[in-house]
Amino acid sequence: MADLDLVDFAVDYAREKGASYAEARYEHQIEEQFILKNSVLDALYHGEDSGIGVRVLAKGGLGFAATNAMTRTDVKALVEDAVKIAKAAHRKDPISFAPEEPVVTNWSVPQRKKLSDVPVEDKIEEILHVDREVMALKFKLVARYFQQANKQIDKYFVNSEGSKIRSFSPRVRMFYFLTLQHNGSAEQTSQNYGWSGGWEAMDELRMRERVIEEAKSMQNSLEHGKKSPEGKMDLVAGPQVTGIASHESCGHPTEADRVLGREASQAGKSFITPASVGQRVGSPVVNVCDDPTMEHGIAYYAYDDEGVKARRRYLYKEGIINEFLQNRETAAILGTRSNGAARATTYNVEAIVRMANTFVEPKDWGVDEMVEGVKFGVYMKSFMEWNIDDKRYNGKYVGREAYLIENGKVTTPVRKTVIELTTPTFWGAVDAVGKDLEIFHAGFCGKSDPGQALDAALGGPTMRLRNVYLR
Amino acid sequence: MEDYAERIVGRAIDLGCQDAVADVSVNRSYQIRFAQNQIVISNRWRETTASAFLVYKKRVVASDIKDFTRLDAQVDNLVKIAKASQENPDYGGIAKGPFKYDRLSVDKKIVDLSDGYDHVDAAVNGALEEGAKECAGSFWKYDEEHYLRTSNGVNAYDHRANLYLSIRALVSLESSGHAVACATKLSQFDPEKAGHKAGKIAALAKSPKSGEAGKFDIIFDPLIFGSLIDQVGGHAGAWTVMAGLSPFAKKVGKRIASEAVTLIDDGSADSIGRKRFDAEGVPTKRNVVVQKGILKTYLHNTSTAKKFKAKTTGNAGLVSPDTHAMVCKPGDWTRDEIFEECKDGLWLTNTWYTRYQSYVTGDFSTIPRDGIFRIKKGEVVGTWKDIRLTDNLINVWKSVEGLSKNVDQVQWWGEVYVPTFAPYALARKIGITRSAE
User: Fold this and answer.
1) pLDDT tens sequence across B353-382
2) Hey, which CATH number is domain B2-204, 3.10.450.50, 1.10.10.10, 3.50.50.60, 3.30.2290.10?
């Protein structure tokens, strides 16, 4: 670790140079990735990313500068850069931050098995083991790509209002991509799971079982899958489908910076405006939350990258647009308080409004109960292709593992079921929400320029949608 | 910086590695982001990173090193990790140097440029003059030096500097246009032109109505066509093919596009992706990927080239091959002729969120954004919204009928990942879908 006094010095020096507000964030991230392609360990990546980012408000403008050279001379030059470019903005509407009380604290995520204690050989063996087991099924798995990735993130955040926060966040990911062929037809899957914590993730995430189950379902789909029916019918959406819809058509459109146009040129804007709070977008059984404090969700944090305490946010509550994701800048514009959604991927980029662990709040339905209530429809457990427009209104999710439901029973697999619906049509059709919450599907959420692909968990329970058009 | 690169390679070899590469890059880039016609933040970077690639008995380790006060200890740790790792039987070594490189030089006026506020103003004002109400985007001054050393005799230096501006102009939430400006010379940088183009599209895209599903002839503007070119370049990497992530497996020598289409990856040409060498130090060169519709080669590093019994194309990344800069060979149509030939179709200006149902078959969809125009007899007769291009990548490319004589250099946030020279294009009977009622 570098001399952390430099982080405090950066903030003091920025104030001395004329910043009305200053913050400095030092990060040291150890990252390792094990890349297994077709049973061969292609490469192992081990990197240590470290440095300091300084963000200042001066004359109503915002400046950010970053370096990995942790000397007093370099940090001084960095601060001078940040103050100079902030002052040069000449904004007609000065930027301000919503008020926050200073916080002095340390937080960390516990590890039952410390990542740093697990030998490289054991980590490699874990993915080799998964690969061996899936190959033992004797399916025609013509391409296999596994990536196991671990991060250990140390941060020290200081601001000119007196906040000083140290944190340690270990994270584990497992990604796999399989291509399975049968009788000249192919099925592909791409799955990503994540965990905040230590190497116990491998047991908790049950990766071996998941990969085996998935390969079996792919083979079943290729051997027995029928064309998916077209028309209006009921849909039972598994946790993975619920999760992606929560993220794409609820989390993103309620990001306040997007609502306010700050992301217009990149990730886009939103069909939601500040005046939309209180408007109906889903059925009364729909509560979509974003909660950084969800234990072991890959995006767990206790305080955000502006030093604001994290809490659960109800984005859609009983089907009504309820709350935006806010940082201090957006909160000031909208006359509210930050709800702790500011995050950055690394020290060298500004913290912006981000989702963390986004999910539909579970209720009390069992999956069997929901299926029993369907005369004819589709049970979509997972998806492959997906996308949504930049105002987050027209979403598409194409089934990977899906089955026909006939007279209350799950019957034959169906292939490539397409859900292509507007956001209100999708959420408005939900009539039942299950109790089987899963929060370990992990994504890399893309936003900002330079692009910040950030850890995000997407989850939820199984949900039932009535009378939606599928093809 | 040469010393750092030398030290990493030397120490790794001393510790028993057979191959070692170190690329020390010095980043002095600068960015201004704007939204609502005002600057929202300015960013400046002063960073030095050593990207290292070490191989011990075919055990491959890659890394990025940021803390140079612990350089030796980090190299020692990487070698220790390599020794504990597993052999990669597909590893085929790194290129044998030394090599000769073109004498590329950067525009000193770009290197000396201290800010970009005038360029942001020029772009925003251009868009506002066309009728836009709200502009957002980014101005970038990229300035990076690279010092490369390899254990196979490469000792190379490259300075890359260029300017880039991306602007989205909006008249309202659903009436918008997007354009970019790219230049390796300050005198050629024209953010005002980009602003005018984005503003014109936005103004023309007023009051869109929901589009319809079906098969349509499509005029692709260079920005969205750049995205489709990027899909070809990105999936032509040999590593991508081996991982099952490409529709081009076993298609070298076969038709993947219409005869009108020739696509080239060229890191040596004058573009904002220009670079002297790849990650192994191999000089970049012009590689024809698709010639008159036929896939000619995958993009290779030394290892994948050996696997495919080919020669490296000079596209090595740290682990797998990357594209540098794509070029679509211009056609012989004028822009007006392309529009005249579209009797009943659409003009798409931008897209995002391209995703695949199957990389093996190339079944995909992408969501047009910004101006979507209904074209009849070559004329704009209406504006659409809320549609999706849903088709197959190879089918789209086989459906390309005509390309314009003029190409624009484009690059954009994830969709056009590497700089790309793209023309206007006309493609026939492309699938369009939309959200169900």
Assistant:
1) 999 999 999 999 999 999 999 999 999 999
2) 3.30.2290.10
